[in-house]
Amino acid sequence: MRVDVFTIFPGLVDAFCAESLLGKARSTGLLDLRTHDLREHTTDVHRSVDDAPFGGGAGMVLRPQPVFANGVQRGYRVYPGRNRQQFAKLGLQPGDLVLSINGTPLDDPQRGMEIFNTIGTSDRVSVTVERNGQSQELTLNTAQIMLPDANSPPPGRTGQQRPIQTPAFTPEPE
């Protein structure tokens, strides 16, 4: 049986499928698993595969990308989103490797994204970053980050501002 998996984490899928029954099926030839890296078909310098951020949110300020070493997640490398000025205000630098948020290690992909999604719900966030090979503790003042409301007029016109929020924690309209 042939299975093609299209993913941004081909190494992770290969490693996972090399274990247990899937690994046995592959080694005996019962399973032909082929991974395809979506990033190989991108055209921008960051090899982005994400759609444009919808309605603002954290994606407007930073873009986390998971970093793995020997099949284990180390953390998330962060780069500016569309709003580079707000990214710089946080005290982050492009390429910083965020190792933990509020003391919680980012060594698990699911938990890591859940933690990243909570950044917008706090006024201050403590992060451990690796920058230039050195570990540093930073306190990010997320309360200072203001994004245009999704219903606001374009930049340059008056409109309401709202604190940074991720889609998972955006309050329902009243």
Quick structural summary:
With about 170 residues, the chain is α+β, with helices and mostly antiparallel strands. It has helices at about 10-15, 20-25, 85-90, 110-115, and strands at about 1-5, 30-35, 60-70, 70-80, 95-100, 105, 125-130, 135-140, 145-150, 160-165.
- The stretches of 5 or more residues where confidence is low (pLDDT under 50) are 52-56, 149-174
Query: Distance between termini?
Result: 52 Å
Strand content: 25-35%
Spatial extent as radius of gyration: 19 Å
CATH architecture of the largest domain: Roll
| Shape assignment | elongated
Name given to the CATH homologous superfamily of the largest domain: PDZ domain
Percent of residues in helices comes to 10-25%
Number of domains: 2
- The total of beta strands comes to 10
| Structural class assignment | alpha+beta
Number of helices: 4
**SSE arrangement, N to C:** EHHEEEHEEHEEEE
CATH-derived topology of the largest domain: Pdz3 Domain
The major beta sheet can be summarized as: 6 strands, antiparallel
Give the overall pLDDT as a whole number.
77
CATH class of the largest domain: Mainly Beta
Please, could you describe this protein's structure?
The chain has four helices and ten strands; from the N terminus they run βααβββαββαββββ. With 174 residues, the protein is an alpha+beta fold. It has two domains: 2-38, no CATH class; 58-167, Pdz3 Domain (Roll), CATH 2.30.42. The strands form three sheets. Strands 3, 4, 5, 6, 7 and 8 form a six-stranded antiparallel beta sheet that branches. A two-stranded parallel ribbon has the order 1-2.
